[in-house]
Write a structure and sequence with these properties.
The structure is a homodimer of 257-residue chains. Helix content of chain A is 50%, strand content 6%. With 257 residues, the first copy, chain A, is mainly alpha-helical. In chain A, a hairpin with a 5-residue loop joins strand 3 and strand 4.
Chain lengths: 257, 257
């Protein structure tokens, strides 16, 4: 039974999970009433027309964007979730919790961006086949350095959150847990070797992944045709040549951002 | 005269503007009392110690992070600004304006991330010198496709905001205007040829840049030793070989994210 009768309209590329999936998971887990608008007939055309419309500013820069029941259009995954979560009861009440969730979601967004760039390091206007050698170098760095660093951070956060339950957000079921689930699903799909090697270092993350997967509405969603399968047009892509065994540590030095 | 007597502590790498600069500009424009903590003696050591401390979750994943007067530590540039802006009167009151600002700031963050990756496409754990040929390819795509797309969006938003002043945020002086100023400064530093070619297509953005630069506190800040100069350790780097003249359009196709 939906917790809300409001109707949301999600706009995202119809053929991939992509960034839209973080919004879908929140809407599905809450049992919210929504339309995945761009998956219907003429979906992509409607999506592009909205991006070029003369609507009230700001127009979103790119999908995903969500039309709220009051008519407002919000883009940027983390901004959508930040506004949506209190309505869906997917974040504890209070500014401190909402900021904590936003900070964690943005850290996940950084990881998602790097997962994308692992197969598209030169530019998203080129095909993977035109940047395979660059992707091999970038993926090595991503697999050996960045995945362990990000997942180590979230594992430690889960540990800290458990030790100091009061006020802790991670692992207490919020939209951030749903997003973390999605990132873990994506990384396992794209880099099964790398994730198998990491498994013993991230027990709390793997437990969270199973907890989220078993939530009744999420389980029903994952088995429904509404869930698009992972594929090689999305953010998380399985190219076996990028999921290599470790050979040597990448050289130190470089860039702070 | 400071608008507030609260004292903020900013933690960011001491030798670059980087993402910390978006926070510095907000604090400076508001005349807030703050310490740029990592630029003092033992600064980097203190910064790293905080990241490894057993503080209340969530710890930030990476700099910049800000300690608020109530002791809480917030990381992720857009999350820091989202919490900070109402205290500094750098966003209009009300949830709708705050979400609008967050959405625009996150779009700027995407552009900043791509500006960084133009010189570090393979990985931030490697030196630029170890990825020069990849950087040349990525920078071509960034200069020919991405800068025009992002700046075209913000120029159009400024236009839409002017046409429908009520409720519009961009150009009405908020932290987003300060961030937009910083991005324009950075792009002009890193890609002077590319920006010169774009000038006639972004008159509103260039006017905004001059308006922000002339704000008394910003002008004073830019001429003070507190402003770190752009350099080739930061996000916006001037490598003449990446600021090329256009030769041909990059091939279409590729990736949606």
């Amino acid at each position: 039974m939906p917790r809300t009768n409001k109707r949301y309209e999600l706009f995202y590329w119809p053929e991939i999970q992509g960034r839209g999936e973080f919004i879908r998971l929140a809407l599905e887990d809450a049992g919210a009433s929504y339309v995945d608008a761009a998956r219907g007939p003429e979906g992509t055309r409607k999506l592009l027309a909205l991006l070029r419309s003369a609507s009230k500013p700001p127009l979103p820069f790119a999908p995903p964007f969500l039309r709220f029941p009051d008519g407002s259009l919000v883009g940027q995954t983390a901004a959508i979730l930040h506004r949506l979560a209190p309505e869906l009861k997917l974040v504890p009440a209070g500014d401190a919790s909402r900021i904590q969730a936003l900070q964690l979601q943005l850290t996940l967004a950084d990881l998602v961006g790097e997962a994308h760039d692992a197969h598209h390091p030169v530019g998203m206007d080129l095909y993977y086949e035109d940047q395979k050698s660059e992707a091999a170098r970038r993926a090595r760095s991503f697999v050996l350095q960045r995945i362990p660093k990000f997942l180590g951070y979230f594992e430690a956060e889960l540990d800290r959150a458990r030790a100091r339950k009061r006020g802790a957000l991670l692992g207490q079921h919020s939209y951030v847990d749903l997003s973390l689930f999605q990132v873990l699903e994506g990384l396992h799909y794209a880099f099964p070797n790398a994730m198998a090697r990491l498994a013993r270092r991230i027990p709390r993350l793997l437990a969270l992944r199973e907890r989220v997967r078993a939530r009744p509405r999420i389980a029903a969603y994952l088995h429904s045709p509404r869930r698009i399968a992972f594929n090689e047009q999305g953010i998380f892509r399985h190219y076996p040549e990028l999921d290599m065994e470790p050979r040597r540590k990448a050289r130190g030095g470089g860039s702070r951002r």
